[in-house]
From TrEMBL:
It comes from Chryseobacterium oranimense. This is AsmA protein. The chain crosses the membrane at residues 12-33. It comes from the Bacteria. InterPro entries: AsmA-related (IPR052894). PANTHER family: DUF748 DOMAIN-CONTAINING PROTEIN. Residues 923-963 are annotated as: Disordered.
Length: 963
C-alpha cells in the first residue's frame, strides 16, 4: 500500500509539472513571439488584401479559442474591392487566426491553419455590370518563383468557424437577394489542398431569398450537414453528402458547381421525399404559419428540384430550372368546421428554360379537393410561354366559400357565397397575334361577402355572372359577358354590365354606376397606396366598336357619362413621389374623354389640366395602346428636381431598374423618366419653373410628350432679367442618363448676372468673369445628361453666335498677356461693342471663328481653339493702321489662367480632342496637348504619308493589271 501511494504521488507530481509547464508555455509563448506573429500577419494582410483593413486591438493568446494559439483582432472593418472601396464589406467583433505551434517554435514561421470570426456583418454586393465587392484577396501569380527568404505568413487551413453572422448577398446582375441572420458555420478539412473534402455544419436562424423581387423564402430557419469536395484548381464544388432542413422540411441534394471566368456552371438536384403536407407548409411565409398551428393537416408530399446549365451575364446565358410538387390524400380541417377539406391532391410541374419567364412551362396535372358530396373542385391546367402562351385547361367546381373558409380556419378574413365554375380552354393566347384559346365556360358567384379584421364593414351582396366563349382560337370569335357584376359597400351599390364581342375589333356595350370609397376599400384588405378619403364616382354608358374611334367614325360611337375622382393618391413606378388628385372631373363624349376640371399636386408642384384624351378605349384594351390628347396646362410652380427618378420620396413601388440604380448610386438624383405610352400636346402657362436652383419665370409655349420624348416649340420664359426663346427635345435612356437637343435665342441679357446665377455659363464660358454688359445669344446644342442630370461637356455638339452688343472687357488674362508683350495697355480694356463671335463645340473643344475688334488704333483678330478645361491654341493677328491691312501674327497657347505668348509666330501647339462613348456615356479620353514636333519631324511624317499613299496606289494598279 505504501508503494502504491508513492506511485500515485509520482504520477500526480509529474502530471502537475506537465500541466504547469503547458500553462507556463501558454503564457510565455505569446510573450516570446508577439513581434514575429504580429509583423508577419500584418505583412500577409497588406500583401494579399486589396480592400482597406482597419481594427482596434490585437491579442495573442491560447485562451480565446483553447487550445489553439490565436492572433485576434477586435472590431475589424474591411472595405470592399474596386469600385466599392468606400463601402464596408465586413465588420466583426473578433477575427482570429490559429497558428501552427510546430512551425512557430522550430522554424519561426507563421502558418495559419484556423480562422474564427465572431459577431460579424457581411454585405456582399454585385452591381448590374457584374462588378463584385468581395474580390479583396490578391493571390500571388503562379508563374512567379518562390522566394525562400521572403518573410510573411502563409495559409494552410484546416478549420473555419463563423459564429453569429449576418450576411446580405445582393446580386443585381442576377436579380438575387439572400439575407441570412444568426448564421453559425463550421467548416473542416484540408482547405489548403488542391482537392479536399469540406465538412460543413450550418445553422441560420432566419433566411430570406428572393428572385426578381419575388420572395420564395421569408424568415426561414435552416440547418445543413454537408460534405463538399472542392477542387481549387478548377474551382469546382461537388456535393457529396448534403442534408438540409428548411423549417421542418428535410431536403437532400447532389450535384456540382463550377466557378467560371464570366459566371458559373451547375448541375444540382434536390429532393424532399416522403414528407408530410404539414412539413411542406412549414416553408410558407410566416403569416401563414400561425394558421397551420391551429389547423389539423394530414397527407403526404414530395418535392423535386433540378437546376442545370451555365450562368453568364456577359454572354446572356442562364441555367434551366425544373420543379415538381406532389400532394397526396390531403386533409385539412379546423376545429369549428362542419365539413373538412378532404382528398386534396396536386401534381404541379414547373419548367423554366434559361430562367426566362417567356419560356415558362406550368403543368398542373391534377388539382382537386372535396368539401362534401356536392361541394368539390377539379382542375387541370397546362401552359407554356408567357407573351405567346400555349394553354390547355379544364376547370370545374361548385364550392360553398363559407364552408371552404371554415374548413381552412381562415382567421383574418370571412368569405361567403356560392361559386360555380366550368371552363375549358385549348389553344394559344397572344395579344400581339390576337390569338385566344378555344374556350367555353362560365364563372358564377351568388350572394358573396368579404370581410376582414382590418375594417368593420364588409363588401357584400357580391353577384357575378360571367360567360366566356371562343369558337376558332382568334380574337374575332371571343365573347365575354358580365351580366351583372354588382356589390354593396357601406350603403353604396355598384354595378357593372358588360357585353364584349369580337376582340379583334372590339364591339363593346358597358354600363357602370356607383360610388366607391377607394381608401376604405383598400383598408378592408389592409393595403396602402391610396388616400383614405379618396372617392370614385361613376355613371358611364359606353357603346361602340374599337375601330370607330381609330377610323374617325365618331358618329357611330355612343359613349357618355361622368367619372369623378376626389382626393386620390396614386404612384407610378418611375416617379419617386405620389400624385395627389384633389379633384378630377371627367366627361365621356363619344371619342373624347374630357378633363373638365383636373387639379393635382406632386410634391411642391401643382397642375391644372383642361382638355381631352383620345383612344382611351384602345388604351385600356390593348397592352401597347398609346393615349393621344390635347391639353391646356396651368401651374403656379413646377420643381423639375422632384421628378428625377432617384430622388427620395414616398413611393415604395418603383421599377427594378430604378431601385437598382438608386442602390448603386445613392448620392445621385437620376434623370426624369418620360412615359412611353403618351402622345399628348400641351399649351403650357406656368408662373415659375425651377431646375437645380435656376428659376424660369412666366414660361409659355407649346410642349408635347410623344412615346418617351418631350418637345418644346416656340416656348419662352424670363431668365436673369431677359426673355429667352427655346425649342428643345429631351429623352431619357435609363434612370441614370438622358440626351437632349436645344436651340435657344436670348436678347440683351446681363453677362455678369448670367455668370453668377447659371452654373453652365460659369463652366462653359470662364472668360465671362471678366466681361460686363449686354449680350445676345443664338445657339444650338445637343448632348447628354449624367446621373445627376448635369450636362456631360465632352458630349456637347453644336454652335452659334454671341453678339457683344454693349460690353466692357477688362483684364482678360489672355488679352492682357498679348498687350504686355506688345507694350500696349489698351489690350486690358479693348473695344468689343457690336462684335459677333461665332463658335462651334465638339469633343470638349470650342472652335472660334475669326472675329475682329478694336484696341486703340489697332485692329486685332482672333481665331483658334480652346477647351472646357482651359487649354488655349489661338491665332491673333494684330492689324496696324491705317485700316489694319498690314499686321503681324501672334500665337497664344497655355491656359486661360497662364497664357503663353509668341510674337511673329504662326506655329501653335494643337489640342487633341476628347473621345466620348455615347453608348456608355463615358469619357474615354480627355483632351490634351499635342506633342511638340520639329520641322524635321513634320517633314518626315509628311514624306512617310506620301510614300504610304504611293504604295497603295501602286498595289491597286498591279491588282487591276492582274485582273
Amino acid at each position: 500500500m505504501e508503494r502504491f501511494k508513492k506511485i500515485i504521488l509520482k504520477i500526480l507530481k509529474w502530471t502537475g509539472i506537465s500541466i504547469a509547464s503547458i500553462l507556463f508555455l501558454m503564457f510565455i509563448l505569446p510573450i516570446l513571439f508577439p513581434g514575429t506573429i504580429s509583423q508577419q500577419v500584418k505583412i500577409f494582410a497588406n500583401k494579399h488584401l486589396a480592400g482597406k483593413l482597419d481594427y482596434k486591438k490585437t491579442h495573442l493568446t491560447f485562451f480565446r479559442h483553447f487550445p489553439s494559439l490565436t492572433v485576434s483582432v477586435d472590431n475589424l472593418v474591411l472595405q470592399g474591392s474596386k469600385p466599392f472601396q468606400n463601402d464596408t464589406l465586413l465588420t466583426a467583433k473578433e477575427v482570429a487566426v490559429g497558428i501552427n505551434l510546430k512551425n512557430l517554435i522550430f522554424n519561426r514561421e507563421v502558418k495559419i491553419d484556423e480562422i474564427y470570426v465572431t459577431d460579424a456583418n457581411a454585405n456582399v454586393f454585385v452591381n448590374t455590370k457584374g462588378e463584385a465587392n468581395y474580390n479583396v484577396y490578391v493571390s500571388k501569380p503562379s508563374a512567379k518563383p518562390k522566394d525562400s527568404t521572403e518573410a510573411g505568413a502563409s495559409i494552410k487551413l484546416d478549420l473555419i468557424k463563423f459564429k453569429n453572422w449576418n450576411i446580405r448577398y445582393n446580386d443585381h446582375s442576377a436579380r438575387v437577394l439572400v439575407d441570412a441572420k444568426g448564421l453559425n458555420y463550421t467548416g473542416k478539412g484540408g482547405l489548403s489542398e488542391d482537392i479536399f473534402d469540406l465538412q460543413t455544419n450550418l445553422d441560420i436562424d432566419k433566411v430570406d431569398f428572393s428572385l426578381n423581387r419575388i420572395y420564395y423564402a421569408k424568415q426561414k430557419t435552416l440547418h445543413a450537414d454537408l460534405i463538399t469536395r472542392i477542387n481549387t484548381n478548377a474551382l469546382t464544388f461537388v456535393l457529396k453528402k448534403n442534408e438540409l432542413r428548411i423549417n421542418e422540411l428535410p431536403l437532400k441534394f447532389i450535384g456540382f458547381i463550377s466557378i467560371l471566368k464570366d459566371g458559373y456552371n451547375m448541375d444540382i438536384k434536390a429532393a424532399s421525399e416522403k414528407t408530410t403536407i404539414r412539413e411542406m407548409i412549414s416553408v410558407l411565409p410566416p403569416q401563414y404559419l400561425d394558421w397551420a398551428k391551429d389547423t389539423k393537416i394530414e397527407g403526404n408530399s414530395d418535392l423535386y428540384f433540378h437546376i442545370k446549365g451555365r450562368f453568364s451575364e456577359p454572354k446572356k446565358i442562364k441555367p434551366r430550372a425544373k420543379v415538381r410538387l406532389l400532394v397526396k390524400n390531403g386533409f385539412v380541417s379546423n376545429g369549428k368546421a362542419p365539413v373538412p377539406m378532404n382528398n386534396l391532391n396536386m401534381d404541379l410541374n414547373i419548367d423554366l428554360p434559361s430562367l426566362d419567364a417567356n419560356q415558362l412551362g406550368v403543368d398542373v396535372k391534377k388539382l382537386s379537393f372535396d368539401l362534401g358530396p356536392n361541394n368539390n373542385f377539379r382542375a387541370y391546367i397546362k401552359t407554356k410561354g408567357l407573351n405567346e402562351m400555349q394553354v390547355n385547361a379544364d376547370i370545374k367546381g361548385a364550392v360553398d366559400l363559407q364552408t371552404l373558409d371554415q374548413a381552412l380556419g381562415l382567421k383574418d378574413i370571412d368569405i361567403r357565397g356560392l361559386m360555380d365554375t366550368n371552363i375549358k380552354a385549348n389553344g394559344i393566347f397572344s395579344l400581339d397575334k390576337k390569338l385566344f384559346p378555344k374556350t367555353n365556360g362560365y364563372l358564377h358567384l351568388k350572394n358573396g361577402l368579404v370581410k376582414t379584421k382590418y375594417y368593420p364593414n364588409p363588401i357584400q351582396n357580391i353577384n357575378l355572372i360571367a360567360n366566356i366563349v371562343n369558337t376558332d382560337g382568334t380574337f374575332r370569335s371571343l365573347g365575354v359577358k358580365l351580366d351583372p357584376f354588382s356589390f354593396d359597400f357601406e350603403g353604396n351599390p355598384v354595378f357593372v354590365n358588360a357585353d364584349l364581342q369580337d376582340f379583334e375589333d372590339l364591339l363593346y356595350k358597358v354600363r357602370a354606376k356607383g360610388v366607391l370609397n377607394v381608401g376604405r376599400i383598400y383598408k378592408v384588405f389592409a393595403k396602402k397606396g391610396f388616400d383614405i378619403s379618396g372617392l370614385i364616382m361613376a355613371d358611364l354608358s359606353l357603346n361602340g366598336r374599337q375601330s370607330y374611334a381609330t377610323t374617325g367614325q365618331y358618329s357611330k360611337l355612343d359613349n357618355k357619362g361622368t367619372l369623378i375622382l376626389k382626393n386620390i393618391k396614386a404612384t407610378t413606378e418611375y416617379l419617386p413621389k405620389s400624385f395627389f388628385i384633389r379633384e378630377g372631373n371627367f366627361r365621356f363624349e363619344n371619342e373624347k374623354m374630357w378633363f373638365r376640371k383636373f387639379l393635382a399636386t406632386y410634391g411642391k408642384s401643382d397642375f391644372a389640366l383642361n382638355g381631352y384624351l383620345l383612344n382611351t378605349i384602345n388604351y385600356f384594351i390593348e397592352r401597347k395602346g398609346t393615349l393621344h390628347g390635347k391639353f391646356g396646362l396651368n401651374s403656379n410652380y413646377i420643381l423639375i428636381d422632384e421628378f428625377m427618378a432617384l430622388k427620395n420620396g414616398d413611393n415604395t413601388d418603383k421599377s427594378i431598374e430604378v431601385e437598382y440604380a438608386k442602390v448603386e448610386n445613392p448620392k445621385s438624383s437620376g434623370v426624369v423618366i418620360i412615359p412611353k405610352n403618351l402622345d399628348v400636346s400641351l399649351e403650357v402657362n406656368t408662373k415659375k419653373v425651377e431646375f437645380k436652383g435656376l428659376m424660369l419665370n412666366h414660361l409659355k409655349g407649346n410642349a408635347s410628350v410623344n412615346t418617351g420624348e418631350v418637345y418644346l416649340k416656340n416656348t419662352s420664359f424670363d431668365i436673369i432679367g431677359s426673355r429667352m426663346n427655346i425649342d428643345a427635345r429631351y429623352q431619357d435612356e435609363s434612370p441614370l442618363t438622358a440626351n437632349y437637343d436645344v436651340s435657344l435665342k436670348v436678347q440683351d441679357f446681363d453677362v455678369q448676372r448670367a455668370y453668377k446665377e447659371i452654373d453652365m455659363v460659369r463652366e462653359m464660358v470662364t472668360a465671362a468673369k471678366n466681361v460686363k454688359g449686354i449680350v445676345s445669344l443664338n445657339y444650338k446644342l445637343k448632348g447628354d445628361f449624367d446621373k445627376n442630370m448635369s450636362p456631360i461637356y465632352p458630349s456637347l455638339e453644336g454652335g452659334g453666335i454671341v453678339n457683344l452688343r454693349d460690353v466692357e472687357v477688362k483684364n482678360l488674362k489672355m488679352l492682357s498677356a498679348v498687350g504686355d508683350n506688345l507694350g500696349a495697355k489698351a489690350f486690358d480694356n479693348p473695344d468689343m461693342k457690336g462684335v459677333n463671335i461665332e463658335t462651334h463645340i465638339k469633343n470638349n473643344l470650342i472652335h472660334v471663328d475669326k472675329f475682329t475688334f478694336k484696341v486703340s488704333v489697332l485692329r486685332p483678330s482672333i481665331s483658334g481653339t480652346t477647351s472646357f478645361n482651359g487649354l488655349l491654341d489661338l491665332r491673333v493677328r494684330v492689324g496696324l493702321p491705317p485700316g489694319g491691312w498690314i499686321g503681324f501674327p501672334i500665337v497664344v497657347t497655355g491656359t486661360h489662367a497662364k497664357p503663353k505668348i509668341k510674337i511673329f509666330s504662326k506655329t501653335g501647339q494643337g489640342i487633341i480632342d476628347a473621345l466620348y462613348n455615347k453608348k456608355s456615356n463615358k469619357v474615354i479620353r480627355e483632351e490634351r496637348r499635342a506633342e511638340k514636333k520639329t520641322r524635321r519631324q513634320q517633314r518626315k511624317e509628311k514624306e512617310a504619308q506620301e510614300q504610304k499613299a504611293k504604295n497603295a496606289e501602286n498595289r491597286i494598279n498591279k491588282e487591276l493589271k492582274e485582273k
